[in-house]
Amino acid sequence: MTLWLIIRRSLRQHALSTTVTALALALACGLLMSVWSVKEQSRNIFTHVNGGFDAVLGARSSKLQLVLNAVFHLEASPANIAWSDFEEVRKNPSVELAVPIAMGDNLRGYRIVGTLPEMLTQTEYAPGRRFVVRPPGRIFELALREAVVGSFAAQKLKLKPGDVFHPYHGLTFDEEHAHAEEYVVVGVLEPSNTPADRVIWIPLEGVQKMTGHAAELATDVSAVLVKLRSPIAGRALEMAYNKQGTRLTFAWPIGVTMAELFNKIGWFDRVLALVAALVAVVAAGSVLTGIYNSMNERRRQIALLRALGARRATVFFTVVLEAVTIAAGGVLIGFLFYGVIMTAVAAVIRAQTGVVLEPFAWQPVMLWAPLGMVGLGALAGLVPAFKAYRTDVAEHLAPVN
Amino acid sequence: MPLLEISELRKSFVAPDSSTHTVIDVPALALEENAQVALCGESGSGKTTLLHLIAGIVKPDAGSVRLAGAELSGLSEPQRDRLRAMTIGYIFQTFNLLPAFTCLENVLLGMSFGPGADRVFAENLLRRVGLGGQLNHRPRQLSTGQQQRVAVARALANRPKLVLADEPTGNLDHANAREALTLIREACRENGAALLLVSHDRQVLAEFETVLELAKINRAAPGPNLQSQTSNPK
């Protein structure tokens, strides 16, 4: 009780420096946890999002570009492939399902993807989970100008069944380039927390034969999403397309391709973590100097406590505990920062990719970062604590005029 | 057995010019339980150092301090701290109250390192010294006389056997000094604590039956040496 009282009073006496130091520690802790959590969660989610497919077949390019384009609807398509290529892969005995997609239009920045109804009816975007159209909606008819809108896109574009829209040419929105065709929204998908939530799905031919698109390419597709009967079959198809062929690229498996992306950008995580660690070290230094500088004015108090019977060890631990308390306070505020940062990052990632991070999902970093921060605080408290330990009682009890 | 017994106690300090300066050289001094003794001496005569030696705050170069049956030189520093926390109450000239703490908290601090905090006893002590209505005041909200009364209450908070008072009236005006002195003596008597009070104020010294002149008991002190104690007629 006594120690806690001494610490509380000391913190109150140095409220400004205590608050600034705690905020610096909070920022470091919040950043560290956020960086780690975003890295872990996004790696985990992005390497598991595959829309229910094992591979992507597309024009010769990098596997990553194909996956980002066809699965995450982020990159531009490298080029089109012929309808015959789709037919060929569809008829391959090791392929369970092949669905073509065609892209090249948007509605206010949200991508319009032409495909077959199987994309939404026959795939499990996650084990045991299929796309569901909100009642009273339905899947589009292939022969009609109908659209099914992903939940996020519907929310942002305020689209509902019965609404009519004109597609815009290109993957980025340009008001000048509206197509003449009118599409009717016939369904809105329930949220799947996948990139599909950001897509407006229309019949394949709708994109292929949109006015303004090259007539000679009217049967081409942007890519084919492939589900294999057996994972081993991917090896043979990869050999056939990537090693023996020269026109097409078979991106398989999707998860590994994405993992390679994360490995490539791993340095970015490390830089952010390093920045957070540096902030933590600076904050710890601030704890050290803050308490250390206050020791001169507190030496009389320490001498008095010693005169009242406090041991050297007691004053030593009081100072260490004070540093730990500042760090612990910083950690608590750090969780607040973490919540704010993660909520913002999750919102951005959802808006950009459709993938939903869970800001408050448990991560080991939530244990080791706060503990590390408190440990760092304790370490920073050692120097001023040693100064307190060595305080000459007799000298500092002398009357002050 | 006396409560406090000193023999051949010596303490020297190294001056800035590296010369050794002996401050305390006391061949013998004893204080009985419940006794009230004043110690007088000029500034620099080693009064405060002697109190620090008795309290175990400063370690002697030689000699013996036996307090409440314990030989201080045989104790480790934590043991001396413990003995001080349990046995000694300290009153300072400048009160040394902690400004961020309330009166009650200051008194509670006086017992925290010894017998443990006893809020009721602390409140009673503050009522005894006339500050029952200022329990939660901070020192700066009190007059200097009131601050000294808090210091008295704190010195008695650990139910000490010996109260060491170092010029306790040095910062008070005449009226407050008299009042504080009376309070210290009464409070020590009521709580069964012996009192060793250091002062150079003749009016304060005149209140004591037993006055020791440091110049007479301390061979290192300037002035006439090694006479015995003097007594004020009462």
How is this structure best described in words?
The complex is a heterodimer of chains A (about 400) and B (about 230). With about 400 residues, chain A is of the alpha+beta class. Helices cover about 55% and strands about 15% of the residues of chain A. The two termini of chain A are about 30 Å apart. In chain B, β4 and β5 form a beta hairpin. Chain B is α/β, with parallel strands linked by helices and about 230 residues long. Classes of the chains: A alpha+beta (about 400), B alpha/beta (about 230). At the A-B interface, α1, α10, α11 and α13 of A face α1, α2 and α3 of B.
Write the SSE topology.
The complex is a heterodimer of chains A (401) and B (234).
Chain A: H1 2-13, H2 15-46, E1 55-59, H3 63-70, H4 83-91, E2 95-107, E3 110-115, H5 118-121, E4 124-126, E5 129-130, E6 146-149, H6 151-157, E7 164-165, E8 168-169, E9 183-188, E10 200-203, H7 204-208, E11 223-228, H8 233-244, E12 248-251, H9 254-264, H10 266-307, H11 312-353, H12 365-389, H13 393-397
Parallel strand pairs in A: 3-10, 6-9
Antiparallel strand pairs in A: 1-11, 1-12, 2-3, 2-8, 2-11, 4-5, 6-10, 7-9
Chain B: E1 4-14, E2 20-31, E3 36-40, H1 47-55, E4 62-67, E5 70-71, H2 77-87, E6 88-91, H3 103-112, H4 119-128, H5 144-156, E7 162-166, H6 174-190, E8 194-199, H7 202-205, E9 210-213, H8 214-217, E10 230-231
Parallel strand pairs in B: 3-8, 3-9, 6-7, 7-8
Antiparallel strand pairs in B: 1-2, 1-4, 4-5, 9-10
Helix pairs in contact in B: 3-4, 3-5, 4-5, 5-6
